[in-house]
Amino acid sequence: MRKIALLPVAVQGQIAAGEVIERPASVVKELVENALDAGAHHVEVELVGGGLEQIVVRDDGEGMAPEDALLAFARHATSKLTCAEELARIATLGFRGEALPSIAAVARVRLVTRRSADPTAVAIEANDTGHRPAGSAGAAPGTTIEVRELFATTPARRKFLRTAATELGHVVDLLTRVAVASPTVGFRLAQDGREVLSLPPVRALRDRLVQVLGRGRAGALVPVEAVHGGYTLTGFVAPPREQLASARLVWTYVRIGGEPVGAVAGRWVRDRVLLRAVLDGYASLVQRGRYPIAVLFLAAPAGELDVNVHPAKLEVRFRQPAAIHQLVAPALRARLTASLAPTAPPGQEPTAVGERPPAYGSVPTSTLTLEPAALPLWRPAPRGFASLRFIGQIFEGYLLCEGEGRVVLIDQHAAHERVVYERLHAERRTQGVPRDPLLVPETIELPPAQVAALAEHATALEAAGLEGEPFGAGTFLLRTTPRALAGQDVAALLRAVAAELSEEGTSVAADRATDRALATVACHSVVRVGQRLDDAQVRALLVAMDGVEVVAHCPHGRPVAAALTRTQLEGLFHR
Ligand SMILES: Nc1ncnc2c1ncn2[C@@H]1O[C@H](COP(=O)(O)OP(=O)(O)OP(=O)(O)O)[C@@H](O)[C@H]1O
Ligand SMILES: [Mg+2]
User: Fold this and answer.
1) For residue 63, which atom of ligand 1 is closest to its CA?
2) Contacts 24+ apart (CB under 8 A), 538-541
3) Ligand 1 geometric centre to CA of 78 (Å)
4) CB atoms within 10 A of CB 313
5) Probe target for ligand 1 pocket from 3, 14, 34, with the most ligand atoms within 8 Å of CB
6) Long-range Cβ contact pairs of 80-84 (< 8 A, separation 24 or more)
7) pLDDT at 246 exceeding the cut of 90
8) What spacing in Å lies between the alpha carbon of 101 and ligand 2's midpoint?
């Protein structure tokens, strides 16, 4: 009963092949994906020397018939695809019949496999000279693949590898991402006989996220669910309180078809469309150049998603990228806004948050639990800012307040900016941002590229109350100014907006451009650091802060307020 067959030559030519085994993590990725495609419930990975000396991947999946085990090492031999049409609805992680031969080309491989109905297991050995049967063996049902002497015959590639600890780090990252999509499967990783990662099977995605992110971070996650244009989005996003220097915790997965087939909810991909949509969903909540934590699964109908575009299957192509953006960005935005609103149910006390990456290598970690530094939703003043007692202004820009057993510090500029920004947005949605015509239209000189950016984003400008048009290559003629800026330097404002928009580039979505323009208007129209506020002005600001949807961050993503509880304050004095 053979399952594996060579792909027809015509199909071979259509596969985005050319798998390059770059490092131990590439081997582990392919072998673990094979285990999951074989329906494994438990997958074990053992490394020696970061995988450079040896990698063993053991699964309890369906195993292979003896003749299939031999054929598995032939190029284009697969049990997962028979014709090109099936690619449009492929549900397995593999489909090319490339991985095993590619690994055997750069290492010594020994495969032992047994189906549960077979009395014994068969062994196959393979390397760059070919593959051959290596007798029978005693083994439990499932498949074990041992990969030794990686790149021994390709020293040039070996030279590019880092230390064992770095390679181990890549394997941990990879396995973590894969495991998140398959919570009901157990995973274990050991290095030189010591356990590095242990993820027993759990029921649901959130349980798996507790295992890999820690209880604190996972507990703060907000579920997301949305449907648009045939695509379905599910997953979790973290409140923007924690912002990382890289996108390494923005995990995006895709699959074809509504419900997952088997235990795999999706294929991890790094996709620019998805990442952009996630960041736009967090727009103004996360500082530029910083990244949130998000775990998202996108299900596409057959024919909408092409998984056959990248040699290592790490990238995909969507037939309608715009639909993805329209699904993801607003869905995230809505959930984040709702969860950050001051009326959100009370959570834990806030504490300081730092990004603490797990240490690999020398420090043995029994599980990859990133410190539970993360917090539930952040509310410096759970009962509202208006309930706080204003004590005074310090360092000419911060409001010192007290109430509800905590000291609250508010960045007056950031807070005012947030309030004005939300007000501008609300006005824009209703009657439009109020504006006044300039008595004499103002001609403002700008670099030609910025004039072009302003012309390109005329709608965004108009939405922000800045009407006008280019006047020659290096000049912009401004006819109106937002009322919020009455009497202020409009040329400086327009220059700032132009700089923002030209930095964004011309391809940016209209909504995002408008957001940027409104954020810049907000920033220019508000009280400055250094400006003295009287009691009445402070009171008005505190009241206004309670009226806006998202008070936690200014439109540039900086925090607006910070709080110190009584206990934390007493801790400073060792009480
Ligand atoms: N752990 C395993 N358990 C059962 N069958 C396996 C296992 N690993 C590989 N196979 C079989 O060997 C075949 C070849 O595996 P290989 O990884 O080379 O290709 P693939 O998974 O079909 O496609 P891709 O190259 O995209 O990974 C698979 O189609 C599958 O039938
Ligand atoms: Mg495979």
Assistant:
1) 4
2) 538/390, 538/393, 538/399, 539/386, 539/390, 541/399, 541/410, 541/412, 541/415, 541/416, 541/419
3) 6
4) 23
5) 34
6) 80/37, 81/7, 81/11, 82/5, 82/7, 83/8, 83/11, 84/10, 84/11, 84/14
7) no
8) 10
End-to-end Cα distance, the chain: 74
Distance in angstroms (rounded) separating the CA atoms of residues 60 and 41: 6
Q: Which atom of ligand 1 is the closest one to the Cα of 97?
A: 19
547: amino acid identity, one letter: G
Sign of CA dihedral 287, 289, 295, 296: positive
| Whole-number pLDDT of residue 301 | 94
> Which contiguous run of DSSP H or E holds residue 519?
helix 510-525
Residue 178: which of 155, 208, 148, 206 has the closest Cα? 208
- pLDDT of 352 > 70? The answer is no
CB 136 within 8 A of CB 187: no
For ligand 1, mutation pick of 78, 178, 310, 316 (most atoms within 8 Å of CB): 78
Q: Domains plus CATH for the chain?
A: 5-201 (3.30.565.10), 210-340 (3.30.230.10), 385-561 (3.30.1370.100)
Kindly give the distance from the C-alpha atom of residue 152 to the centroid of ligand 2, in angstroms, as a whole number.
23
| Nearest one of 56, 69, 68, 62 to 35, comparing CA atoms | 62
Cα four-point dihedral sign 529, 533, 539, 543: negative
Distance of CA 413 to the CA centre of its chain: 30
- Residues having CB within 6 Å of any atom of ligand 1: 3-4, 30, 34-35, 38, 59, 61-64, 72, 77-80, 94-100, 143
- For residues 292 and 251, the answer to whether their CB atoms sit within 8 Å is no
Round the average pLDDT of the chain to a whole number and report it. 86
Residue nearest to atom 1 of ligand 1 (CA): 35
Token pair 């029994």 is at which residue? 366
pLDDT tens string 161-195 = 778 888 998 999 999 999 999 999 999 999 999 99
Residue 436's SS3 state is strand
